[in-house]
Amino acid sequence: MTGKAAAIDRDLRARIEDSTYPVGGFLPSEHQLATSYGASRETVRRALQELTEDGWIQKITGRGSKVLERSHYVFPVTRLLGYKEFSLAEGLDLDNRVLAVEQTMLPVAAFAGLRDGGARLEPVPVTHVARLRVIDGEPVIIDHDYLVTALAPGITEQVAQDSLYDHLEGTLGLSLGYSVKEIRVVPADDEDCRLLGLDASDVVVTTTSITSLEDTADIQFTVSRHRADRFRFRDFARRRPEERRTR
């Protein structure tokens, strides 16, 4: 979605976020929105459809578009989003503590489960970036990123401190396409206990992912280890018309 509809979509999201349109209330009518934005009703409908599909509103026949409750401070699992982008969007105080930036070979075994029946992974040269994520003063995530050196050169400690995605997309001009992720609950290891303040009897939630460019080339392999008491997984699922059974 581009142009006027996209602009309306962005503005409505901002107004929902700042409670101009509070949760449980209704957006103005399509006619009112069209007049307010100087757009056609069809353009407004496209913007509202995007909000509906993303779980911001529910259209109720005869009443209008109701604003739905959305979860905040939930780590992005179903989106391809950098933690810098996430923290800025959520208004969080994120401190990146770089633990390591080193050249090594891809630990294939850690990611083989994401390629069941797919192309075989090879132990290619990668830049390993290890970071501790401290959110609002509390250490909550350990990230281990492995970026294919041939595709993502120039990763320094400063790049790791700032944003890998800014470097990949801004500096290198790459186009990130999609990510495949797996979520597991596993016992805390020595590193988890030391950096996250856990006990040996605790567990962590791990998200293991492979991120690919738009041309399908694998570029980033990540293992994130989250404190289980600070991790929440929540998605919004909408049943599509073609999935509804006819009677």
TrEMBL record:
SUPFAM superfamilies: Chorismate lyase-like, Winged helix' DNA-binding domain. This is Trehalose operon repressor. Residues 2-70 form the HTH gntR-type domain. GO terms for molecular function: DNA binding; DNA-binding transcription factor activity. It comes from the Bacteria. Coiled coil: none annotated. Gene3D superfamilies: Chorismate lyase-like, Winged helix-like DNA-binding domain superfamily/Winged helix DNA-binding domain. The keyword Transcription regulation applies. InterPro entries: Bact_HTH_transcr_reg, Chorismate_lyase_/UTRA_dom_sf, TreR, Tscrpt_reg_HTH_GntR, UTRA, WH-like_DNA-bd_sf, WH_DNA-bd_sf. It comes from Rothia kristinae. The keyword DNA-binding applies. One of its GO terms (biological process) is negative regulation of DNA-templated transcription. Keywords: DNA-binding, Transcription, Transcription regulation. It holds the Pfam family UTRA.
